[in-house]
Amino acid sequence: MRRIGRLALAGALLAMAGCSTLLPSSKETVESPWKSFDEAKAAYEKILPGITTMADLKGLGFDPVASPNLQILTYLDVAATLLAIPPEELDEGLRQCLRARTNCRAYVFEPKRLHTKRIGNFWLDFFNFRRMSYETGWRFKALLVLVDGQVTYKLWSGAPHIEEFRDQRNPLGPFQGANDMLFRLL
Questions:
Q1: How does strand 150-169 pair with strand 112-119?
Q2: What pLDDT, in 10s, does the model give residues 51-98?
Q3: Which of 15, 58, 87, 118 is the most exposed place for a label (fewest CB within 10 A)?
């Protein structure tokens, strides 16, 4: 009887130690012609305010019709964003937008590639005692302001190298969020 108990304990310990390949992983991609942050920024750098047109933008991969998750702003959206900046301190391209009113459009492009992988012990993760994940990738954000189909202003931001580790511990395991489940059921 003791021998069976020891074998069961050894089997349980082996099972608890492995199985990390059973943990889920995910990818989050906003489709774009760029495979990296550097490619997106290089395309952005080719945009020249006062020269680049809507047709040029499409050729560079900034296509307002085909790009997913694109945000389109009116001149009122742009104006609301700029309220805290005195008009005399605004870039000329932004002032042109505000003067052009309905002939102004701004576009916010946000391509990204993120890969999240759960790591650690399968059983601790499965029973919600401890969930660890590792996320890598990049994000790029470009604001392009156009008046009558010509770029008048551009601005970019982003994260060229994302590397995040998350470690969530739940001492009560599967019962950690039990009160939330009860409220949802009611």
A1: unpaired
A2: 999 999 999 999 988 888 789 999 999 999 999 999 899 999 999 999
A3: 87
Identity of the amino acid at 42: A
In a domain, 142, yes or no: yes
Q: Whole-angstrom Cα distance, residue 112 to residue 141? A: 9
In a domain, 119, yes or no: yes
Q: String of b and e for 11-49 (b: at least 16 CB within 10 Å)?
A: eeeeeeeeeeeebeeeeeebebebeebebbbebbeebeb
Give a yes or no: residue 28 inside a domain: yes
pLDDT in tens, 7-50: 565 555 555 555 656 676 666 666 788 999 999 999 999 999 99
Q: Which domain holds residue 120?
A: 21-185
Handedness of CA 88, 94, 96, 97 (dihedral sign): negative
Tokens of 8: 């069961």
User: How crowded is the C-beta side of 113, counted as CA atoms within 13 Å?
Assistant: 13
Q: 3-state class of 186 per DSSP?
A: coil
Bridge partners of residue 96, in order along the sequence = none
CA distance 118 to 130: 11
CA angle 66, 67, 73 (to 5 degrees): 110
**Residue 38 — φ and ψ, nearest 5°?**
-60, -40
1 domain-assigned: no
